[in-house]
Amino acid sequence: MIFETVLIIALGILMLSILANLYRVVKGPSSADRVQALDSVGINLIASIAVFSVLLHTHAFFDLILLIGILSFIGTIAFARFIERGVVIERKR
Amino acid sequence: MKTNDVILKSVTRVAAVIISTFSIYLFMNGHHNPGGGFIGGLSTASAIVLLFLSFGIEKVRENIRVDFKKLAAVGVLIALGTGMAGVVFGQPFLTQAFGYYDLPIFGNTELASALIFDTGVALAVIGTAVNIILSISEDR
Q: What was the pLDDT predicted at A21?
């Protein structure tokens, strides 16, 4: 019983962290701040899924953790290249 | 403008192998666990997109010599062929068969024809996703 309470408190703290990151996404002065905040939202989402699957006594969501990590990595790289060079995928002329 | 992105290229060389292995894992255990052809194909496409992002289109295209339009068509034909195999043996369309075989390494294994259908779905998804990415990256 107390274990589930601790898990629910951890989920609440992670939700507050996601809300703080969303504040930085909305308010951020430069677009690099927004990209970094979105990456951090992805990491907090991974942590929430881990806590949530412990809470539900299932291991059906463990693939999702790795998949969100991969997709967040590729999305951050694509945004970083777009900010830096203006194109996402380079091609020689 | 010649930029040196050695960190991105080094990370991509390791991460593309891991993502491809993970996508094959997702594809193979779709019968009993979460996964399957669609998500396996999408994660393979994400590995190919990561290669496109860090190495450029020409370098990847000359190393992976696959026409992705033909790959999508071959996937749809494989999925359709497993459906038509049921019709040939007098069953309804898309009937699947399975059996238990003794394989050399894996021992007693259940082989189902749904895996071939999933292969078709995965090839169609890879071809469609990579083809969309390649089409919208040509800005001419």
A: 95
Residues in chain B within 8 Å Cβ distance of A73:
15
Length of chain B: 140
Q: Are B127 and B71 in contact (CB under 8 A)?
A: yes
Q: Is the ipTM of this complex over 0.90?
A: no
Give the contacts of B5 (CB within 8 A, at least 6 positions apart).
B54
For residue A72, give the chain B residue with the closest CA: B46
How much is the CA Rg of chain A, to the nearest whole Å? 17
pLDDT at A85: 79
Query: What is the overall mean pLDDT for chain A?
Result: 91
- Hunting for tokens 């094959």 — which residue is that? B24
Residues of B within an 8 Å Cβ radius of A? 1, 3, 8, 15, 19, 22, 26, 33-35, 39, 43, 46, 49-50, 52-54, 56-58, 133, 137-139
* pLDDT tens for each residue of A7-59: 999 999 999 999 999 999 999 889 999 999 999 999 999 999 999 999 999 98
Chain centroid offset of residue A40 CA: 5
Quote the tokens at residue B96: 């699947």
Transcribe chain A into DSSP letters: -HHHHHHHHHHHHHHHHHHHHHHHHHH-SSHHHHHHHHHHHHHHHHHHHHHHHHHTT--TTHHHHHHHHHHHHHHHHHHHHHHHHS-SS----
Which pTM value belongs to this model?
Answer: 0.87
The rounded radius of gyration (Å) of the Cα atoms in chain B is: 18
